[in-house]
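Model it.
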Amino acid sequence: MPAQYKLTVFLIVFLAIFLFLPKEIFAVFSFKIKDAEPDLVSSKNQEVEVLLDITDLPSESYFRVAWQEGENKRYFGYIKIDGNWVKIKSLSDDCSEYYYISDTSTNSATLITKIGEEEELISGTYLLKAHRFTSTCKSYKTSENTFEIVVNLPTSTSSPSPSPSSTSDFSPTSSPTPSPSSTPSLSPTTDSSPTPKSIRVIGATLLGEVLGEGEASVSFFPWGSN
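Modeled.
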């Protein structure tokens, strides 16, 4: 009987501790994505509103929502904080720019996210995951669930641009530049007129002078003139 009595006392004490101690001692922190709207996006800059359900937040915390192509893939995207877009970084980087909650009684939070124009994506189903960081950014916890978002990006149909018509540009006809006519240079002509000669004739001296163009002049002098 003494052993049975001790067991009974132990159970009573244990139940008393369990019933009367504050629930916070036994509380387990958890959070999950409750909803996201819309669940289909057609633009990389389209905003998605994500509702988080939080249970027993232990201390001041930072929260974020990130996109993922699939399990074990890299995280990407942006979240809006006070009207500014904050880029999602590595889990080991500084978290102080994310959504901050100081009140530990908070049981829900709404975050706004988008993909970001610079991401090279194809249409398909992507995952949304939420992360909670401690106030020192030294540790983090991942949400209990993921949320699927369908991304349906428009395909760029490149219409052929009209090629310029193959009409040859009009260029003025190049009329040949007249080369200067080769005017023969006039070299001074040698006067081939015979040198006037004095002819002594008996009784007279004949001076014949050809004056060009066939003209001639004859002079008679008295006899004996030198």
